[in-house]
Amino acid sequence: MENPNRDAPIGVFDSGMGGISVLKELYEIMPQEDYIYFGDSKNAPYGTRPLEEIRSLTIANVQFLLSQGAKGIVVACNTATAAAVRILREMYPKLPLVGIEPAIKPAALQPGHPVILVMATPMTIQGDKYKTLMMNYELKADIIGLPCPGLMEFVETGNTEGADLKVFLEKLLAPYLREIDSIVLGCTHYPFVRRLIQEIAGERVRIFDGGNGTAREMRRRLDAAGLLSARKEYGTVTFENSLATEEEIELSRTLFQKNLS
Ligand code: DGL
Predict the structure, then answer these.
(1) I need a labelling partner for 222 at 20 to 30 A (CA). Which of 35, 39, 74, 76 fits?
(2) Ligand 1 centre from 141 Cα, in Å?
């Protein structure tokens, strides 16, 4: 079931389109790899579902990617990572498997006891993983968790710059803007609206996300397992989506091409 072939693809999944922001980081540092990206848009959002449902959806996604021959898995969803990464590690102890968590550490280690706003799904903010992260850094920073139900849906429909999205974000962020020094994007959908968040928060506020750290961690794991491809040419990226419509695949490609900086 686990694929020891170093030219096999890396499997990446999310509840929908968000994990494409992590896929971009993976492709940036490992362009010679092949990728299969699975977006479970049919069951999105995950972040407002009960824990048990998120767990079984997450396990099914991993099984699907392994059935497609993946040599390793990136759980490109903070919500699925918080809900199920421990179980997945127990199920697949030998598989290179990496999850993503809100980038609180680099934000909290900025000088001067910063005030940090963590934007994430309700499930991520309620989860034990988040509470542990908070506790680890509470002496270094003031950390405010902001559940953002409704935000991922904009990205799912390809809306990353609309006037309605701007109004939504302004309303969401307004109560915090005077006090915060940084924002952590604790959901993989949010890097697609990063520019708008930066515009609303102002240049003074620094934005962090965990995509790059997750990609680097996956490269380390594959390297340690002797599973990095030695190919010289660019790899391929294949998009799969549980809605299985041409629109979803097209939107996936568009988001993959989008410049996020
Ligand atoms: N992209 C997912 C994350 O990183 C969440 C979106 C959802 O609620 O499904 O948490």
Answers:
(1) 39
(2) 25
Longest dimension (CA), the chain: 52
Residue 13 reports pLDDT greater than 70:
yes
Residue with tokens 């974000």: 169
Question: How many angstroms is it from 230 CA to the middle of ligand 1?
Answer: 33
> Would you state the torsion angle of the CA atoms of residues 133, 137, 138, 139, taken in this order, to the nearest 10 degrees?
160
Residue nearest to atom 2 of ligand 1 (CA): 77
Q: How far apart are CA 94 and CA 157, in angstroms?
A: 36
Neighbours of 3 (CB within 10 A): 17
* Cis ω before 45 (30° cut-off from 0): yes
**Which tens digits make up the pLDDT trace of 193-218?**
999 999 999 999 999 999 999 999 99
Distance of alpha carbon 96 from alpha carbon 98, whole angstroms: 7
Residue 48 tokens read as 């407002």
DSSP string, 104-117: HHHHHTSSS--EEE
